[in-house]
Amino acid sequence: MTPDFLASLATQFPSLACLREPEDLIPYSFDGTATLQQLPGAVVFPTAAAEIAGLLKLAGRSKIPVVTRGAGTGLSGGSVPLPGCLVLCLTKMNRILEVDERNLALAAESGASTADVALAAERAHLFYPPDPGSMKISTIGGNVAENSGGLRGLKYGVTRDYVMGLEVVLASGEILWTGGKCVKDVAGYSLRDLFIGSEGTLGIITKVLLKLIPKPAARRTLLATFDRMEDAAEAVSAIIAAKIIPCTLEFLDNVTIHCVEDYAHVGLPRDAAAVLLMETDGHPAAVADEAAAMADLARHHGAREVQTAASDEDAARLASARRTAFAALARVAPTTILEDATVPRSELAKMIGFIQQTGARHRLKIGTFGHMGDGNLHPTFLTNERNHEEMHRVETAMKEIFDFAVGLGGTITGEHGVGLAKKDFLRAALGELNLGVMRQVKAAFDPGNVLNPGKIF
Amino acid sequence: MSAHDTLRTMDYAVLQQCMHCGMCLPTCPTYDATRQERNSPRGRISLMRAIADGRLDATKAFAQEMYFCLGCLACETACPAGVDYAHLFEVARAESERSGVLAGPRRSLLRRVLLRGLFTRPRLLRAVGRLLRFYQASGLQSLFRGLRLNALLPARFRWLEGQTPTARREFSDDLIQPREAPAGGIKYRVGLLTGCVQDIVLSDVNRDTVDALLANGCEVVTPPVQSCCGSLHAHNGDLDTAAALARRQLDAFDPFALDAIITNAAGCGSHLKTYDRLLANDPVYAPRAAEWTRKLRDINEWLVEIGWRRPLATGRETPVKATYHEACHLCHGQKISRQPREILRGIPGLELVEMAEATWCCGSAGVYNITQPEMASRLQQRKMGHVFATGAALAVTANPGCHLQLAHGAKLAGRPLEVAHPVSLLARAYRAEPGAGQRQ
Ligand SMILES: Cc1cc2nc3c(=O)[nH]c(=O)nc-3n(C[C@H](O)[C@H](O)[C@H](O)COP(=O)(O)OP(=O)(O)OC[C@H]3O[C@@H](n4cnc5c(N)ncnc54)[C@H](O)[C@@H]3O)c2cc1C
Ligand code: SF4
Ligand code: SF4
């Protein structure tokens, strides 16, 4: 970061909050990803799209890389700075702009938290379904940039399914609007869709227009315990074959069950191979029928026990096993690495079996939990980054797991994105042609390679 | 040389336990105020880790940051990874002091007088309490305020002057016998910690605690002239004095001869429960400290644990609407939330109305309202807004700092509000029971 650049920054943006001291920058040198860290040159907090446009023009001229940051909860290193870069932190652009009940749409600045978006929808008796585990703090812009998922993917989809329009500042400093409140819109390429999941490499999202849906009237929660993971997977397939689409189908494996019991004493059987949390929502009558059918199907496919919640408190108690899973795993070891290999639903049992064998083969502790309905797994490595020999085994195991997932027709990341962490695995997963086309897209939007350079590929 | 850990010598795993996920950010009052990572738990831990790694020295900016932190421990409650922030915070403040980056003649003098002088000498502290009482009773206070002499004080002390609590007429020793036995049989033997602030300004809470314990079959042992528990020192970077004070407490009480040691001050309690760690390397005191920690209980926690007796209704109670403010060091520091509410719900005539953000810090935070008056008063206003919104005439809290902060907040707002400790309400209800007079 040259003195010239800093001087221009100060004169052109006199009221912009700008951090430069080490004590201010160290806290911005990482995101939620384990082991990645890099000090930026400066961190600024813009408050309007026009200001960001000016900053991008200046950065482009001065060839200073720009890293956009939401809440810094990313799990692939997307907002980890580059040496000497300018970090644009958007948390001060956090207003909810509009809740449009006639068009079932909500507009917000991109730095608004996911929880604030969900709350604003709820106040209008509407529903914004994507619920990443980090939603209390993650920004909606970050969710769009990562195309984040959540627990409700099977029935309600992911962030992409709710983005109607975006305001984006391009690398050139122009402000683009793409999409709108029309449910149907085929005028030209859907540029909006290109920005979803672009991890801050194509443009800076400043405003988000989201689709809302009516809130389901009722919900029923069930918890089933299985002696074999294959049985749990079979039960899930049977439920879906019976034309029931539950809103939640989450599982814990045996290692995770042990950790949950050690930490939260929920009363799970320690010898079970899998615990399955199931929820169905919708019209009260339909929900009651579906819950009964799901319980039957689970029992028929070998569930040792099925509990159906009788009340809201009861439902919260059953769901607490899944809700505490990550916390229970995270406190076991100094370093927690949360992965998100994803496979077609039909291959789940195979994938989970492979993860367990791989962990044993490399003498590693891996707890796996995740979204059984959409095939999105969270193998969680419990390790210590200071133990270099063990970290080497972690890396080897991770590569084997990704290769196996891709071999089953799956993907290296279902919801956390590529960023820095998965960069090295992308070519093997997608092939050269895919990567080449992506590079062309990147060059078309950001010819100077200013926006988050070095991320994804 | 101090025997205590520094950021560089401490178990690195405690620092590593933070996976920088950010889940603590929305619960941190200082981050909420500035929206800057440095003022967040995750940011502060990253600075501590940078020092441990040798990437940063304990600079002045670092030390200031450690003192901007409230030590409210809301981050601990929110943290999925079980980060021991209380421990990190103590070590980091001690590091700030050791580095001397904040030292100036005025600050050093003040620290020496307060931490090493006043708060290690219970008799001296009481003498100051008496002086304070004289100052308030003699009309000097009104004269001082009337002449607007307080306007001459530097801003932060002026604010404090407005806050000076009214000292009680009696200290705990005047109200409590060294040993008091319940009228019925003795079910438990417990020790009572009288605290220093509690003792000077809220000694009747101590009497109420004894009464509530007696009514529940506990024999109460209260050694006279107790010294400070050391929480003020540990939270302000003086671990050596904290350890010396802990040893003194362990001399005054025999934890092996008691079923429990009771505190009614949340801030003290959360520190008292860590004596085992504080004295872990002390060959003489370590076993006693471990037993102490095992037996230490907050009064709310203890009463619920032993199946407290619900007071009988007289039918003549005036109904009162009360709201409960959770002291940080009770709900976050000791994870005690349910018990005080259970007690309040059992008090005849009392209706509990929950306030918004009950677990959000009120800004008292030990001596924070002296060292960071601006942030403290912001938090106070926010808290008072929520208290008043409930329409309650009574605010209940279980920590003397919070108690004074709420009372002062109501005074500033010019609104009537009674502030009470749950155990005081319980003791009052026992006293009002039909036939209570004969029984005692
Ligand atoms: C405890 C925990 C649980 C999680 N649970 C889930 C989960 O269930 N599902 C899931 O999918 N993810 C989950 N995540 C990952 C993470 O929270 C998401 O990826 C989230 O969307 C990131 O949002 P953020 O605001 O923190 O973005 P950041 O981490 O700050 O940034 C993420 C990426 O987006 C880019 N970016 C951010 N804002 C913008 C913008 N306005 N314009 C352009 N680019 C931008 C950044 O440059 C970066 O590449 C979890 C993370 C944690 C720590
Ligand atoms: S103790 Fe309180 S103020 Fe300090 S970091 Fe934790 S939540 Fe923030
Ligand atoms: S919640 Fe815990 S692990 Fe996450 S950033 Fe905060 S202190 Fe660290």
Describe the protein:
The complex is a heterodimer of chains A (about 450) and B (about 450). By secondary structure, chain A is an alpha+beta fold. Chain A has 3 domains: about 5-90, Uridine Diphospho-n-acetylenolpyruvylglucosamine Reductase, domain 2 (2-Layer Sandwich); about 95-215, Uridine Diphospho-n-acetylenolpyruvylglucosamine Reductase, domain 3 (2-Layer Sandwich); about 220-405, Vanillyl-alcohol Oxidase, Chain A, domain 3 (3-Layer(aba) Sandwich). Helix content of chain A is about 35%, strand content about 20%. Chain A is built from 16 helices and 18 strands. Chain A has helices at about 5-10, 20-25, 50-60, 115-125, 140-145, 155, 190-195, 230-240, 255-265, 285-300, 310-325, 325-330, 350-360, 390-405, 425-430, 430-445, and strands at about 20, 40-45, 65-70, 85-90, 95-100, 105-110, 125, 165-170, 175-180, 205-210, 215, 220-225, 250-255, 275-280, 305-310, 335-340, 365-370, 375-385. Chain A has a 7-stranded antiparallel sheet, with helices on both faces. In chain A, about 50% of the residues are buried. The model of chain A has no long low-confidence stretch (mean pLDDT about 95). Chain B is α/β, with parallel strands linked by helices and about 450 residues long. Among the domains of chain B are: about 10-105, Fumarate Reductase Iron-sulfur Protein, Chain B, domain 2; about 320-430, Rossmann fold (3-Layer(aba) Sandwich). Chain B is about 50% helix and about 5% strand. Chain B has helices at about 10-15, 30-35, 40-55, 60-70, 75-80, 85-100, 105-115, 120-135, 140-145, 155-165, 170-175, 195-200, 205-215, 230-235, 240-250, 265-270, 275-280, 285-295, 300-305, 330, 340-345, 370, 375-390, 400-415, 420-430, 435-440, and strands spanning about 180, 190, 220, 260-265, 295-300, 320-325, 350, 395, 420. In chain B, the strands form 2 sheets. A 5-stranded mixed sheet of chain B has the order 1-3-2-4-5. In chain B, helix 24 (about 400-415) links the parallel strand 8 (about 395) and strand 9 (about 420). In chain B, helix 4 crosses helix 6 (about 85-100), helix 13 crosses helix 25 and helix 19 crosses helix 21 (about 340-345). Chain B is globular and about 70 Å long. The model of chain B is unreliable at about 135-165 (pLDDT under 50). The interface of A and B includes residues 73 and 115 of A. The complex binds flavin-adenine dinucleotide and iron/sulfur cluster (2 copies). One iron/sulfur cluster (SF4) binds near residues 19, 23, 24, 41 and 83 of chain B.
